[in-house]
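Project standup — Tuesday

K.O.: blocked on the structure for the chain from last sprint. Re-posting the sequence here as requested.
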Amino acid sequence: MAGPGQLEVVWFKRDLRVADHAPLAEACARAKATGGRVLGFYAVEPSVIQAPDYSGRHWAATREALAELRENLLGSGIPLAVRTGEVVELLERLRAHAIGRGARLSLWSHEETGNAVTYARDRAVRRWARSQGVEWHERLQTGVVRRLPSRDGWAAAWEKRMRAPLIAAPDRVRGWTHVEPGELPSADELGLAPDVCPERQPTGEASAREELRSFLARRGKNYSREMSSPRTAAQACSRLSVPLALGTISMRTVVQAAHARMEELQAAKEAGLPGDGYRVGSVRSFIARLHWHCHFMQKLEDEPRIETQSFVRAFDALRATDPVGDRAERLAAWSEGRTGYPLIDACMRSLRATGWINFRMRAMLMSFASYDLWLPWRESGLVLARLFTDYEPGIHWSQVQMQSGTTGINALRMYSPLKQSLDQDPKGEFIRRWVPELAAVPEVYVHEPWRMTPATQAAAACVLGRDYPLPIVDHKEAVRQARAKFGEIVRRPEHRAETQSVLKTHGSRKRSAEKSSGIRRTRRAKGVAPESGGDQLELGV
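H.V.: unblocked you, prediction finished:
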C-alpha cells in the first residue's frame, strides 16, 4: 500500500549517521514519491544492555552519537523516536499507533552482524514483520555477506561494494510527528554499573569525519611504522574503529577516502612534486586493514557459534580445569592491571581510562591472559569486550580465539611481555604514565622491577609486594606448560580433519584479497600472527 497514509520507519541500530545511509535515503525517496512520512526509531534494548559483553561506556558512546543523530535528522525534518524496551514489542506499539492514525508502516534498516542477542532479536523482528504484513527492507552496511556459500571471490566482491557511489544525506522530507521523541536515558536510569572512562574519544558523525580527515592529512604519515607502540599508536592510528563500530561513518566512506589519498600521493610522486611527508605505504597498509575488518566479521556471520565455542571444538575444555576461585583471582589481577608485568598493567590501565588500545597491545594482553594465566578465552574476552569502546563482535571473538590458539589454523603466538616492553616502550614512558608506582624506578629496571635490590626499591619508593606486585607467574615456565598442553591435542588424529574444515570455511584467501585491493605483498613482521594483519579495526586502527 502506498499513498499519504504510508509511514516509513528507519530503524537505527549500529549505523548512527545520515550520510551514506541507504535505508534512510531509500525511505526518504519513497516517502517523497508516495506522499508518505518518515520517522527515525532507536530502541534501547534491555536484552542488549544487560548482556555480559555490554558496559556503561558503550552506552555513553552510543548516547552521545544518538544526540547528534537526532539533530542531524531534524535538519531533514525527520524526528528520532527513542524508546526503551524490546524491539518487537516497541515496533508493534508503533504499528498499532500508525494504524490508529490511518498509516501503514514499512520498516527500513541495515543488516547487522552482532552478538547472539542481536542475532536472535533480528530473527524475532523478521517473524513479527511477516506475521503483520510489514515490509522490512534490509540493506548492506559493510562488506559482510549474508548466507555466503563460499569465501572464493569474496575479496573481489568486497572491493566492488566499497567502490559503489556514496549516498548523500537526505534533503528535507515530511517527518511523522505523531509520537513524542523521548529522552535519551542515562546509564544510571538504565541500571548500568558505573563505568568511568574519562578519556573516551568523542563520538558522533562530525567527530568521525574529523578523525578521517586528520588521519589522512597528517596523523597517519608514519602509520605503518608507529601503529605497534602504545606510545605512538594513539595518534598514528586512524581512531576510526569506534566510529565504524557505532556506524557514525560508513566503511565505504573510509575506503574511498583512503583510495583517493593514495592516488593523490602516488600522482605527486610520479610527477616529481615535493611531498608532505605522508608515506604511500601507510595508506596502503591502512586499506589492507579495512579489508581485514570485514574479513573477520564475516567469520561470525558464517558461524555465529564462535562467540561462545572454540573454532576447533577440542579446545573448549582446554582451560576450564583450574579451580574457579584461582581463575577469578588471576582474571581480576589481569583486568585491573596488577600482574607485576609493567607493560601488561600499563596497557590495561590505559584501556580502562580511554576505552582504546592499539592492536599489538591487545594481542599481547589476550596472549598473556590465555597462555601465561591460562584463563578461558571467553572469560577474558568478555572483560575486553566491556572495556573496548570499539567492540565489534565479529572481529573481537575471531581475534580473541586467534590470540588464544583455538582457531586451529594460526600459529600459537605467545607474546613475551618483556620483549614487547623493550621493543615498544624502550624508555618506559608509557609505563610510567599509566603505572605511577614505577615513576621513580630507574630506567634499567622499569621493564623488570623484580630485579631491583631492596635498597633500589626503597630509593624509588616502590617496594615490591607492597607498592607494586611481584610477577603473578613466571612467563617462560607458563608458556612452556601451555605449549605442552596444546601439543597433546594437536597430536590427536582427528585434529587435522577439524582444522581443515575451519580453513575451508574461514581461511583468508590472502593472495586474492591483496590482488583485488591493489595491496602489495610485504614481508610479515616478526611476532605478528599470519592472519592478524598487524593492526585491525576494532583492534586499534
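K.O.: great, moving the ticket to review. Confidence is low (pLDDT under 50) at residues 511-540. DSSP finds 23 helices and five strands in the chain.
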